[in-house]
């Protein structure tokens, strides 16, 4: 059984993916296709790298198919986008999983997963996957004005937050967005790395104090193990 | 500049969120003796409606909505006292707040601007509004409608908590309850026992007016 883990782009569909249909597919993957014995993880781009790391570490035969993380700002597009890729993957792979939490789809992703008989990661969003839902709830109950960062968000802050919110063009809007926020919590997968300075810079740009919580990716690993066992 | 040009300019400059220009055109229009309500109903409100439609279509995202909303709010500051002076009647009182535990407020603020533009008196309690605070504000301000806004899956249950608190305080029958926010649906609104839901700011104005007319007709009929 192949153990290598590759992150392949879903932008260039393979011939098998061209067979994609909108209907849950009953096609069996071909026995000759090496993917028949592998798992396809259709993953949110914001956690794809972590999933690839974990799968490599654990020797899981998983191929990651990432979707653009910016979909988070338009959550109504997530479920249709996931569904559009499921046909092709289900036709080629022995197993397909959806490496998304609910992610602001408010149940729409569950409907797609149910329709296809496919499981997704537990939780509401990736903060739950790194720190556990209870801790997130506690932090929000303690300070509702908490803005969470993950390593991905720290790295991509300029693009995924600042520019998306138009703050590059209209810096005066910062307070319209963040007036009621009181703190930034960085759920750090790798707090010892070079991202610390970057996280501090992000918090300073938001004018908020930063708390660093080292989460690693252990909780995501457990969630992924559960998902693959489904 | 002709009156037509003022209205076109106001519409276009609100659409692109050019606050200073919107204010300047408002001043010019008023200087030419144009009615505040004309500026509002024939330019500002249609422009913000178009902004909402573009957001719906995916042509605009949040920042474009925000700057347009700010531009319109700036003009409203100038027009509000004049509208009151010229006897434009307040059509109802709307108490609004983002529920406890939630600090998303952009959608709520846009709804407020449109409600105000449509002639509602809006009292905004801000964000993270606890049920007790809604209750005491309803007692104090006696609004016709109270609106709850929520954006997180974890804060939506506050709608029910708020409605329970109103029931407990004996206020539920006095006030129309509307709910909204990105995750909210008509089904969810029905399930928590709200009177009305709307998906965007323009729809909120329409629904609020309908609900109010319905209630007034009932009261008028002695029900
Ligand atoms: C902008 C935004 C933010 C801004 C908020 C700024 C602010 N002051 O409001 C920032 C960047 C700060 C932010 C922070 C967070 N956010 Co946020 N955010 C969004 C985003 C992208 C857009 C929301 C918005 O403003 N839309 C624009 C307005 C105009 O539309 P609207 O909100 O739907 O409002 C309209 C209608 O709903 C209606 N309406 C609104 N209120 C009312 C009330 C009544 C009574 C009625 C009738 C109608 C009505 O009319 C409005 C006008 O047309 C959404 C994703 C999305 N596209 O929905 C995520 C989203 C809501 N956020 C989300 C999350 C997770 C967060 C954070 C936890 C992220 C983090 N990194 O920490 C924090 C939470 C903060 C907190 N402690 O509460 C999730 C929620 C997921 C969930 N399951 O709960 C979403 C769905 C993103 C996602 N896909 O994961 N966010």
TrEMBL record, chain A:
Domain of life (superkingdom): Bacteria
Residues annotated as domain DUF1638: 67-223
InterPro entries assigned to the protein according to its UniProt record, in alphabetical order: DUF1638 (IPR012437)
Polar residues bias spans: 19-29
Pfam hit, one: DUF1638
Residue ranges, annotated region (Disordered): 1-35
Composition bias, Low complexity: 1-16
Record-given protein name: DUF1638 domain-containing protein
TrEMBL record, chain B:
GO CC, one annotated term: cytosol
InterPro entries: Cbl-bd_cap, Cobalamin-bd, Cobalamin-bd_sf, Met_Synthase/Corrinoid, Meth_synthase_dom
Entries under PROSITE patterns matching the protein: B12_BINDING, B12_BINDING_NTER
Gene Ontology biological process terms, A to Z: homocysteine metabolic process; tetrahydrofolate metabolic process
Pfam families in UniProt: B12-binding (PF02310), B12-binding_2 (PF02607)
Top-level division of the source organism's lineage: Bacteria
Start and end residues of each B12-binding domain: 91-222
Domain B12-binding N-terminal: from-to ranges: 1-91
Transmembrane domains' residue ranges: none
Family (UniProt): Belongs to the methylamine corrinoid protein family.
PANTHER family: METHIONINE SYNTHASE (PTHR45833:SF1)
Name of the molecule in the record: Dimethylamine corrinoid protein
Organism whose genome encodes this protein: Nostocoides jenkinsii Ben 74
Gene name, Swiss-Prot/TrEMBL: mtbC
């Amino acid at each position: 059984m192949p153990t290598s883990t590759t992150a392949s782009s879903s932008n260039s569909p393979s011939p098998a993916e061209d067979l994609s249909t909108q209907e849950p597919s009953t096609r069996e993957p071909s026995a000759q296709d090496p993917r028949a014995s592998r798992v396809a993880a259709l993953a949110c781009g914001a956690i794809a790298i972590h999933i690839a790391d974990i799968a490599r570490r654990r020797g899981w035969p998983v191929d990651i198919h990432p979707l653009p993380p910016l979909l988070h700002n338009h959550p109504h597009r997530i479920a249709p986008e996931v569904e559009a890729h499921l046909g092709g993957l289900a036709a080629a792979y022995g197993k397909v999983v959806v490496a998304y939490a609910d992610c602001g789809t408010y149940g729409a992703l569950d409907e797609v997963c149910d329709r296809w008989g496919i499981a997704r990661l537990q939780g509401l969003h990736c903060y739950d996957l790194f720190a556990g839902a209870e801790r997130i709830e506690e932090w929000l109950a303690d300070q509702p004005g908490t803005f969470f960062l993950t390593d991905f968000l720290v790295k991509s802050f300029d693009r995924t937050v600042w520019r998306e919110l138009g703050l590059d063009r209209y810096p005066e809007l910062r307070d319209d967005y963040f007036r009621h926020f009181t703190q930034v919590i960085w759920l750090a997968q790798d707090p010892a790395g070079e991202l610390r300075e970057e996280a501090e810079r992000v918090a300073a740009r938001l004018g908020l104090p930063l708390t660093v919580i080292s989460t690693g990716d252990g909780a995501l690993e457990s969630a992924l193990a559960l998902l693959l066992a489904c | 500049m002709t009156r037509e040009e003022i209205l076109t300019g106001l519409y276009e400059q609100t659409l692109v969120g050019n606050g200073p220009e919107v204010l300047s055109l408002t001043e010019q229009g008023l200087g030419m003796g144009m009615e505040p309500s004309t500026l509002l109903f024939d330019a500002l409100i249609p422009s913000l409606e178009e902004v909402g439609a573009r957001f719906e279509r995916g042509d605009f995202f949040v920042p474009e909505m925000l700057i347009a909303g700010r531009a319109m709010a700036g003009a409203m500051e100038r027009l509000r006292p004049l509208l009151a002076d010229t006897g434009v009647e307040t059509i109802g009182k709307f108490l609004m707040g983002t529920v406890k535990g939630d600090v998303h407020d952009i959608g709520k603020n846009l709804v407020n601007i449109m409600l105000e533009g449509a002639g509602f008196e809006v009292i905004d309690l801000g964000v993270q509004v606890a049920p007790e605070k809604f209750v005491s504000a309803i007692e104090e301000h006696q609004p016709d409608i109270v609106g709850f806004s929520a954006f997180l899956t974890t804060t939506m249950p506050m709608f029910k908590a708020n409605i329970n608190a109103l029931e407990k305080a004996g206020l539920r029958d006095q006030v129309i309850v509307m709910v909204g926010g990105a995750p909210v649906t008509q089904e969810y609104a029905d399930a928590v026992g709200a009177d009305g839901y709307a998906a965007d700011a323009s729809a909120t104005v329409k629904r609020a007016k309908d609900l109010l007319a319905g209630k007034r007709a009932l009261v008028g009929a002695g029900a």
